[in-house]
What does this fold into?
Amino acid sequence: MTAKPRYRRVVLKASGEALMGEQHFGIDVSVVDRIASDIAEARELGVEVGVVIGGGNIFRGVAVASKGGDRVTGDHMGMLATVINSLALRNSLVKIGVDAVVLSAIAMPELCESFSQRQATAYMNAGKVVIFAGGTGNPFFTTDSAAALRAAEIGADALFKGTQVDGVYSADPKKDPGAVRYEHITHAEVIQKGLAIMDTAAIALARENHIPIIVYSIHEKGGFGEILKGGGHCTIVAD
Ligand SMILES: Nc1ncnc2c1ncn2[C@@H]1O[C@H](COP(=O)(O)OP(=O)(O)OP(=O)(O)O)[C@@H](O)[C@H]1O
Ligand SMILES: O=c1ccn([C@@H]2O[C@H](COP(=O)(O)O)[C@@H](O)[C@H]2O)c(=O)[nH]1
It folds into this structure.
């Protein structure tokens, strides 16, 4: 018999950058397929899953702003990038028989439905994987904030951040080889210590809504399921 999963309903924030695989830009379908298989495993455990995907493999608004362009236009481009990634994930999920729907914060009815809290909750109750595209729909935010916002809106028990590293460290482990990984840390400590694993707005929103954040490596096949089963390799951010 399979053990009861640790959480009933979660939001997974999947790294956009990870979707590039070995490429320098864009989408490696084999990576998206692998992430889809991890989500399928979570569904088999009975966990309701919402997903937010970043857009860093395609575009970030700051790239425009850093060259003197209009930040808001850049952010619009970044949000569109998240829609492309969301459609790719839906495709990979449907291919393996997982019922999935994309709800976008920016209306584009020819491509997908628009987000509403009520519709998202109804789909999740019905067992569909709901992919939240278009970030928050507002410039000057990130998909981390979108993930924390959607987690609060749909009453998620936890926010999973599947990223390029396997947890929260005392400093960026890609820059500081001496950085030490935390097993547990509070939301307040992450903010106070200025640990840049997620943007502060996202951590603060999760904290206010008592949502734990689980940071793990999206590259670890089966890692999502292992954590849901009560094991796995991650940092738990909780008060
Ligand atoms: N204290 C820290 N602990 C862990 N990682 C950190 C820390 N500070 C900075 N980082 C860096 O933050 C990165 C995650 O940032 P970010 O959310 O921008 O990436 P991502 O998950 O790939 O998202 P995106 O969807 O935007 O591509 C990690 O890959 C890591 O290098
Ligand atoms: O609510 C949001 C979410 C995202 N953006 C823009 O999209 C890109 C890609 O998202 P990442 O979180 O960086 O992966 C982001 O850089 C912003 O430009 C946004 O404007 N609003």
